């Protein structure tokens, strides 16, 4: 089963990746930069598997680059329990 099939599984997967990035010394801004690049990849090449992912894709596609950066930062914050500052 793919982590993309269930939004909670997807958030758990992202949380694990964020924790790994922190463990190797990446700061929140760098993680958000990588998340934005990953968001571009997903929006262009991956079909959403659930309603939450479809909504995120539609929002991503209508957002400008600054808004996408904000979305990426918010996703990192969401999966990290909202404790990133």
Walk me through what this model shows:
It comes from Salinithrix halophila. The chain is mostly helical. The protein has a single domain, classed as Cytochrome Bc1 Complex, Chain D, domain 2 (Orthogonal Bundle), CATH 1.10.760.20. 73% of the residues lie in helices and 0% in strands. It contains four helices and no strands. The protein has helices at 7-23, 28-45, 51-62, 65-79. The longest helix has 18 residues, at 28-45.
Compact overview of the structure:
This protein is mainly α and 85 residues long. The protein has helices spanning 7-23, 28-45, 51-62, 65-79.
Order of helices and strands: HHHH
Helix content: over 70%
CATH third-tier fold name: Cytochrome Bc1 Complex, Chain D, domain 2
| Structural class label | mainly alpha
Low-pLDDT runs: none
Mean pLDDT: 88
**Biggest β-sheet: count, sense, barrel?**
none
| Integer tally of domains | 1
Shape-level CATH architecture = Orthogonal Bundle
Assigned CATH class: Mainly Alpha
How far apart the termini lie comes to: 33 Å
Q: Count of helices? A: 4
Provide the CATH superfamily.
Answer: Protein of unknown function DUF3243
The tally of strands reads 0
How large a portion of the residues is in β-strands, by DSSP E?
A: under 5%
Q: Gyration radius, to the nearest Å?
A: 12 Å
What's the overall geometry?
globular
Topology:
Layout: H1 7-23, H2 28-45, H3 51-62, H4 65-79
Keywords for this structure?
single chain; Cytochrome Bc1 Complex, Chain D, domain 2; 4 helices; 85 residues; 73% helix; mainly alpha
């Amino acid at each position: 089963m793919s982590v993309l099939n269930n939004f909670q599984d997807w958030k758990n997967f992202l949380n694990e990746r964020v924790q790994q990035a922190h463990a190797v010394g990446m700061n929140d801004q760098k993680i958000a930069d990588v998340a934005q690049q990953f968001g571009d990849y997903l929006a262009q090449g991956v079909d959403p598997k659930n309603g939450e992912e479809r909504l995120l894709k539609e929002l991503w596609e209508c957002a400008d680059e600054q808004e996408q950066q904000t979305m990426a930062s918010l996703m990192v914050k969401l999966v990290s329990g909202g404790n990133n500052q």
